[in-house]
Design goal:
- The chain is mainly alpha-helical.
- The chain has helices at residues 3-34, 36-39, 49-79; strands at residues 43-44, 47-48.
- The chain has one domain (3-80).
- Helices cover 73% and strands 4% of the residues.
- Strands 1-2 form a two-stranded antiparallel ribbon.
- The longest helix is centred in the N-terminal third of the chain and has 32 residues, at 3-34.
- The two termini are 13 Å apart.
- The relative contact order is 0.13.
């Protein structure tokens, strides 16, 4: 991979990480702090939904984002033909 492709690969990687962290931050802050009173009007069993999101929901969202990251990175690796077995020390 030449220098230009490497730069594009890492730019795409950083953009993916940034976007997923933004989704996680918005869901965590939004569901757990900003919209908790509105969400508490919805109930799951005996628990208010805002409480559930603060305790469990954002963890589920984070795990889902991990799977999305892994899937998207596989696509990105295939696009840029990144070989997982090649170590970075071989290029130096």
């Amino acid at each position: 991979m030449d220098k230009e492709q490497r730069k594009a690969y890492w730019s795409a990687n950083i953009a993916l990480i940034r976007n997923l962290l933004i989704v996680w931050a918005i869901s965590s802050i939004g569901a757990s702090i900003l919209f908790v009173k509105v969400l508490n009007h919805i109930r799951i069993g005996n628990l208010p939904f805002g409480f559930w999101m603060a305790q469990q929901g954002t963890i589920f969202i984070f795990v889902i984002l991990i799977f999305i990251y892994a899937f998207q990175m596989d696509k990105l690796d295939r696009k840029y033909r990144v070989d997982r077995d090649t170590s970075s020390t071989e290029e130096e």
